[in-house]
Structure formats: structure tokens, C-alpha cells
Amino acid sequence: MLQTTKRPDSPVSIIGAGIAGAWQALLFAQAGHAVTLHERGDAEMTDATSHWAGGMLAPYCEAEVSEPIISRLGLRSLDIWRRELPDTPFNGSLVVAHPRERHDFERFARMTAGHRRLDAAGLAELEPSLEGRFRDALFFPTEGHVEPRRVLPKLHERIKAAGGTIKFDSDVTAGDLDGIVIDCRGLSARDEQPELRGVKGEMILIETAEVQLARPVRLIHPRWPLYVIPREDNLFMLGATSIEAEDTGVSVRSALELLGAAYAVHPAFGEARIVEFGSGLRPAFPDNLPRIGIRGENIAVNGLYRHGFLIAPALAELTLAYVERGQIDNEVMQCA
């Protein structure tokens, strides 16, 4: 086991500049460590799972289908997002349903906390575009969302401002590096963690000026919930499926389901322009829970599944606490 006291000048190498690696690099650099972040791709990060993510910061909503550890890490992460990127939108999130999904809507309400009910008038006041569309909604006022393709470059800039170095087009392994190495390669780490699997998440990006939303809207759906996530420039992301497959295409069935569900949120989405289809492979362990694996000076942070943007800051904080103080979180950490 790595036994350490605080060494502000100790070098730390991090492999993978997606959302998990970026948060590790930022917190370690801010703590005074000599950080180098390695990324095998280029600065556009188009091959990273983070490029296709929704960016929802919704620990209360995720409690409906996730273990309590996700909510715990997620709630802590909200504080870190607010601290480090105070311009992060925390406008809350909404959950809505049509009458035929009433039972599932009430179940969602029972399974989650941190919300208040809005009647039709309250919903219309909060989101005028949804006036007359739903008779009520669940409003989670403390949740937030980020746009992954915009926020990841911001994190990279923050790392450099804190004294860290980022090396793109740097395809390295732990064996190539000295000192503490934190492996955040996602699915690429299956050479060391063969139990990882990829879970495909598909998304569609559409454009319309006919609908204005200030926060994500989650529609209760018979097969999977639809997320409509507002982006800048009249863009909306529709997602996200969770499919046990490792190809990177978007199926016709998924596209039809996502577009049909979006139309059910607001008919104006039927006239929207499709900008992009895409999918990413989320790294997941068999239990779908994150893991910080420790083997000497090699640390592996992986298995963030579909909660990467939600829990990455808290995982970085736990890793830093372990390296500097030997602090162990028994729910997340495994020591060899």
C-alpha cells in the first residue's frame, strides 16, 4: 500500500484527459503537486467518452436507479463544481410525464428526494415553453448541468493555470512513467482491468429557436427516460440510452425513440434541425459502481459508468486525500 505524507512537490502523472483525469489533475495541481496530464488523443478530445456525455449534475434524480454511493459522491461533487467553476449553471432540473406514465412518475417521486412538486401554473412560470404541456412536474432546484464540450477545455485551462502540464498525443502507460501514476483511461484500461465493459450511450443534437429551456427536462418513458438538455445557440441534446453493446453507432430504433419522446415533450421539436448523431462507450464494472484501485504508487480511477460528470470531482478529492494523508474510503477504494 502507498503510505504517504503530504509532499507538495511530488510528481504525479495522470493518464487520460477526459472528465475523470481532468478533475484529478486539477485538484492535485492546486494542492501543489507537479502534475503532468497525458492524453493519447488531440486537444479536441473527440474520441473521449466525455465528448458524448450529457453533463447532467443530478444526484437526486440519479437516486431512482443508482446506489446511494452515487448520490453521496454526486452531492459532494456539486460543492466542488460550485467552488471551482462558479459559473456552472445550477438552475435545477425537471421531471415530467404524460398521464399514461402516471404510475412511473409517482414511483420516481417516491424514490428520489430534494424535489418539490409544481402544478401546471408553477411549471409554466418556471419554463414558459412547457405551458399547457403537463399538469405537474417535479422540480429539483439544486441540481445543475454543464456542456461537456465547453467545460472540459475550461478544466484543462484551469489545470495549466494551477501549474500543471498537459501533453496531448501522448500515448503512455504506467510503466513509462515515474512516481505516482493515476490511470483514468476508461475502457482503454482493460489491459489492467479486464472486468470493465462498455455501455453505449447514444445522443442526438438538435437545433430550434421555437423552444427555450433553462434546465434539463427528464421525461418519464416506458423504456428509458429521455433527457432534453439545453445547450447554447438554440441547441438541445437528446439522450441518453444505455445499451449493453460496444459499437459506436446510433441505431434507427434509438433515434426514433429519442426523437419521438422529444416530440412528446414539445411538438416544436418535430420541426427542429438535426445537427448530430453520436454515441460514447461508458466504462463500467459489473456492479456499475466507480472504483479507485490502489497498487503501490499506481492508482486506477475507473468505472464511472454514466455518472462521469456527476462524480468525477468527488473521486479526485478522495484520491488526493489518500495520496496526501493515507485516507481510505472503503466504499470506493480497493487496495492490492
Summarize this structure briefly.
With 336 residues, this protein is α/β, with parallel strands linked by helices. Helices cover 29% and strands 25% of the residues. It has helices at residues 19-30, 59-62, 68-84, 102-111, 120-126, 148-161, 252-265, 308-325, and strands at residues 11-15, 34-39, 56-57, 93-96, 116-119, 136-140, 144-145, 165-168, 180-183, 197-207, 217-219, 226-230, 235-239, 273-284, 291-295, 298-302, 333-335.
* DSSP helix fraction: 25-40%
Strand content: 25-35%
Tell me about the largest β-sheet: 8 strands, mixed
- The CATH topology assignment of the largest domain is FAD/NAD(P)-binding domain
Rg, alpha carbons = 20 Å
Low-pLDDT regions: 1-6
Mean pLDDT: 94
CATH class of the largest domain: Alpha Beta
What's the helix count?
8
Question: How do the helices and strands follow one another from N- to C-terminus?
Answer: EHEEHHEHEHEEHEEEEEEHEEEHE
The structure class reads: alpha/beta
**Strand order in the largest sheet:** 5-6-4-11-12-13-10-14
Quantity of strands, as a count: 17
**CATH architectural type of the largest domain:** 3-Layer(bba) Sandwich
Distance between the termini: 7 Å
Shape: globular
Give the count of structural domains.
2
CATH homologous superfamily identity of the largest domain: FAD/NAD(P)-binding domain
